[in-house]
Amino acid sequence: MSIFLNQDSKIIVQGITGGEGTKHTARMLASGADVVGGVNARKAGTTVSHQDADGNDVELPVFGGVSEAMEKTGADVSVMFVPPAFAKDAGLEAVDAGIGLLVIITEGIPVQDSAAIWAHACEKGNATRIIGPNCPGIISPGESLAGIIPANITKKGKLGLVSKSGTLTYQMMYELRDLGFSTAIGIGGDPVIGTTHIDALAAFQEDPDTEAIVMIGEIGGDAEERAADFIKENVTKPVVGYVAGFTAPEGKTMGHAGAIVSGSSGTAQAKKEALEAAGVKVGKTPSETAELMRELLS
């Protein structure tokens, strides 16, 4: 099994005709994902040409809006490759259409706009799960890919992975490629995100085919401390963790907009201690974290 995304997921791409949308639509199709169309109001009624995983030519329809795309294709997932200035409107449109999963890849969206999309989803009864923004998306290896995660660096398996960092998502998938993953999710490192560590941990805990979980955090905020509390109370499966940023100087924003440390709040050491207090084995490096997982499962 998998969480949030599976072989039956039908994907549309908001921004399918742009440079990033074009490139990653091709990669999603090549991975075997069922991409069924896209959205660009200015190019509605046209098609875009790609090849599927078997090398067959496919013509994907371009629609004027998410509602029309869902109605015509049965899509239940949207991946957003929309520039930051237009991301708020695109996100609100997807939520209004009632898409089941919205993956926002775009980096640099103003926090106020991200908060508006998330708040609107809450007002709509949380019918739309949002992953991101500023994230690599989600992959259920052997089933589907919604986002920019490389599909050829791991295989299907029994591990669940949730990570703030895109590149560390990829590294951990590769480090543990011999074991494989049920689902790997890059949740993004912005201050406001739609799906949290806790959301993913809860889903992996409920998934009967996920046997163990890898959680990757980073400096800044208190998401990892809250996740540690959740693990202590609710997660019975083995969890290993890694926290990026042990050498980051105080008060310095490192990479992600949310990765800023103030005093002792949000430091890698504080997060490591909170996770270890919850029974999570924490590695000093991604490679050591992978070895901890192998030891746990042996």
Automatic annotation (TrEMBL):
Residue ranges of domain CoA-binding in the record: 4-109
Enzyme class: ligase
Binding-site residues, substrate: Y170
Active site: residue positions: H256
EC number: 6.2.1.5
UniProt KW keywords: Ligase, Nucleotide-binding, Tricarboxylic acid cycle
Residues that coordinate or bind CoA: T17, G18, G19, E20, K43, I105, T106, E107
Quaternary structure note: Heterotetramer of two alpha and two beta subunits.
Pfam families in the record: CoA_binding, Ligase_CoA
Gene encoding the protein: sucD
Catalysed conversion reaction: GTP + succinate + CoA = succinyl-CoA + GDP + phosphate; succinate + ATP + CoA = succinyl-CoA + ADP + phosphate
Any one Gene Ontology molecular-function term assigned to this protein's record: ligase activity
SUPFAM superfamilies: NAD(P)-binding Rossmann-fold domains, Succinyl-CoA synthetase domains
InterPro entries found in the cross-reference section: Cit_synth/succinyl-CoA_lig_AS, Citrt_syn/SCS-alpha_CS, CoA-bd, CoA_lig_alpha, NAD(P)-bd_dom_sf, SUCC_ACL_C, Succinyl-CoA_synth-like
Organism the protein comes from: Brevibacterium daeguense
Similarity comment: Belongs to the succinate/malate CoA ligase alpha subunit family.
Pathway listed: Carbohydrate metabolism; tricarboxylic acid cycle; succinate from succinyl-CoA (ligase route): step 1/1
Name of this protein: Succinate--CoA ligase [ADP-forming] subunit alpha
Cited function: Succinyl-CoA synthetase functions in the citric acid cycle (TCA), coupling the hydrolysis of succinyl-CoA to the synthesis of either ATP or GTP and thus represents the only step of substrate-level phosphorylation in the TCA. The alpha subunit of the enzyme binds the substrates coenzyme A and phosphate, while succinate binding and nucleotide specificity is provided by the beta subunit.
